[in-house]
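Weekly modeling sync, notes
Attendees: S.R. (lead), two postdocs, one rotation student

Agenda item 3: backlog of single-chain predictions. S.R. asked that every request posted to the team notebook include the full sequence so nobody has to chase files. The rotation student volunteered to paste the first one in as an example of the format we agreed on. Action items at the bottom.

Example entry:
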Amino acid sequence: MNTLVIVTGPTAVGKTGAAIQIAQTLGCEIINADSRQVYADIPIATALPTAGQRAAVPHHLMAFLPLEQTYSAWQFEHDALALLPGLWQRGNGFAVVVGGSMMYVDALRFGIDPMPDIRPDIRQAVLDQIESEGLDNLLEELRRRDPEYHAIVDRANPRRVAHAIEICRQTGSTYTSLRTGTARQRPFRIITLALNLPRDVLFDRINCRVLQMIDLGLEDEARRVYPMRQLNALNTVGLKEMFAHFDGRLSRDEAIARIQKNTRVYAKKQLTWLRRDNTLHYATPDQALPAVQTLVSEDAP
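Predicted structure, as returned to the notebook:
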């Protein structure tokens, strides 16, 4: 049976290196499941694999979108499923998915409910409202229109709130009514490996990686895209803090420290998401390859 090996886990844990090693051993290719690495032009902020890493194993759905274009977990599911037949053929029945965008990973594992394409005027109106008013009024609108989703939405994530409002305004229905939550059966075997490290080790890796990103030119990259800072693609840790520095709201040192802190917070949210799933197989990055080899052998039909 065709086998999909998913390598996920918190940011900076070492997913890229582990996935490349697994893919090379299995003789297959990689699909990216990082919602920011789908965008071109911001390789430092998104910690894009190096040219050497991408040359070692073919990577798909990576750095292929302009910053102006929106992309969703539903689109990722559709695009990844379309790629898999060719990847099975070239990869001895194997393919690897790597990324820490948990909605993307779960969309591929379990399926996601299709949502309507949002009209540009509705999307722009919501973006303008966030820019001028913040989230409070949109959250109140969501409470009126869809109290069930309002109760569970991540209120610190403007995109989640905005998308729910867009759906409500366009369809006249609740976002909740379009989310069936029904898992789809996939006609292939899925092995999901979650990488993790002791908390202090992971946080030290995060802090060091942020400093490496600064050394690689994150500040210059942020200045280059600063005129487009309103784009959703740029609403990401590393760029937001640099934009605040350019606006005079943070010193350079404060911006760097804030990037480190916000990245650690993001990692904790990823781990919280993963803990809800008792079907995952855990490993350290060094244990990833032998763990997958064992699981492939044990799960073989």
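Discussion: group reviewed the output briefly. DSSP finds 13 helices and six strands in the chain.
Action items: rotation student to repeat for the remaining queue; S.R. to check formatting next week.
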